[in-house]
Design goal:
three-stranded mixed beta sheet, globular, mainly alpha, 2 domains, 5 strands
């Protein structure tokens, strides 16, 4: 028994000694299962694997030939040969490994090949997007809309990333880097979904392309909102109920972040949000990244706020009417369902929610006696309009019924007056006799 106990202890000690070092540079994560359960497709690549996490999936192997073609095209833009390019990746290998959450099982040769081909693919993809003249005849990606859409989706994913410093390092080897920055190329590729300001010279190093998408929103986000957070908060009512309580909606102007939501003098001002086929993957992967990496939950807070404001297609139509939402999905039901899924299973830490003061102001405004009365009156007007004034004939019927009711009441009142008048006269004459 003593030897058994000793051996168990030795084995445990060995396992502890062999634990991988926790890297402070870790930034590329596996999406937690609790997020993936809501919609695995939003986190899973469709046609192309980028980085080591999805490398062995059979359904993604067809694009390996495309990567080789893109690498061949990329080599035409640089002054170095393939050996020098490979050496460049080799010198960054240790730094690259530390960027991934997992202790990567790939050996040195395999990992260098993966990162070289995938990073060159992404850089060349951005180059061909910006410079159509570099696209090949019968281009596999840009000549096929379905392929272009799938690749765009895959580049948005948290698990499908290579470190940003690798992409920038490779791009600096090209002759194009003297005229156009890699940040410019990134913005040009993502601008239809990122809806943020272009970053000229960020004050911090981007971790990967998901982090870049988040940085676009943070660059113009009013920092004073962070200092106004409350530990306790209650989410506001949905858009329809806020409107009933007298709150007005206004589309924010300018180029500030979509995160910049302001409530002042009874008006909720929000920057426009375009909802399209990439919106769910965009938000879900940034939310997952924030939950894994960042203390301040900017995108998560926005997703929670939007989920609170939107519950039904009716809420969607209100925000569309005021230019706050642009629906490129089709039905209002689809948009409402998407927004309600954006923050599913998100950890709601009150200390990291950025809109607590805004929610408090909205709730305080809508709960005053005057605004509650306005809400009740608004609901009655809607009911009357829907039930009785939905078409001219029903409206005429209601008016006629109201007139008939008034006339009936007047006739009844006159009869009572006449009756009491006659009775009073009889009493008066009887008293005289």
């Amino acid at each position: 028994m003593g030897e058994t106990v000793k051996q168990v202890a030795v084995n445990i000690q060995t396992d502890m000694d062999n634990l991988p070092r926790v890297s402070t540079e870790c930034c590329i994560y596996r999406v937690p299962e609790k997020f993936r359960r809501a919609n695995a497709e939003a986190y899973t690549p469709q046609v192309v694997s980028i980085g080591p996490f999805h490398r062995d999936k059979t359904e993604l192997q067809l694009t390996e030939e495309i990567k080789l073609r893109y690498l061949k095209g990329f080599l035409h833009h640089i002054k170095a040969d393939l050996v020098s390019l490979t050496r460049n990746i080799y010198e960054m290998e240790s730094h690259i490994r530390q960027s991934y959450q997992e202790n990567l099982t790939q050996g040195s040769e395999e990992l260098i090949r993966i990162i070289l081909m995938d990073a060159a693919f992404v850089v060349e993809l951005f180059i061909r997007n910006h410079y159509p003249k570099y696209r090949e005849e019968n281009e596999e990606i840009f000549s096929k809309q379905w392929m272009r859409d799938c690749v765009f989706h895959d580049v948005l994913l948290l698990e499908n990333q290579v470190p940003f410093f690798v992409l920038e390092n490779l791009y600096k080897l090209t002759e194009l880097s003297t005229t156009v920055t890699f940040l410019k190329l990134s913005y040009e590729y993502f601008k239809d979904v990122l809806q943020g300001n272009e970053l000229a010279s960020p004050s911090f190093q981007m971790k990967h392309l998901v982090d870049y998408g988040r940085a676009l929103q943070l660059s113009s986000f009013p920092q004073e909102m962070i200092s106004k957070r409350n530990k306790k908060f209650e989410l506001p009512r949905r858009a329809k109920e806020l409107q009933e309580a007298g709150i007005k909606f206004r589309r924010g102007e300018g180029t500030s972040s979509m995160l910049n939501v302001v409530f002042k003098d009874g008006t909720l001002e929000m920057r426009p949000l375009v909802v399209n086929k990439w919106t769910e993957a965009y938000f879900k992967n940034m939310v997952a990244y924030e939950q894994c990496q960042h203390e301040d939950k900017y995108i998560s807070s926005y997703a929670i706020l939007m989920d609170s404001l939107i519950d039904t297609p009716e809420d969607i139509n209100i925000l569309i009417r005021y230019g706050i939402l642009e629906n490129q999905l089709g039905s209002a039901e689809a948009v409402a369902s998407l927004i309600n899924r954006m923050n599913k299973d998100t950890i709601r830490d009150s200390g990291s929610f950025l809109y607590s003061s805004l929610c408090e102001s909205l709730n305080s405004y809508s709960r005053t006696r005057w605004h509650q009365w306005k809400a009740a009156w608004y609901r009655w007007r809607v009911i009357l309009k829907r039930e009785y004034f939905s078409n001219p004939w029903s409206g005429i019927s209601v008016v006629a019924a109201m007139v008939l009711l008034v006339l009936t009441l007047m006739q009844t009142a006159c009869s009572f007056i006449q009756f009491y008048s006659d009775d009073a006269r009889r009493l008066f004459h009887g008293h005289k006799r």
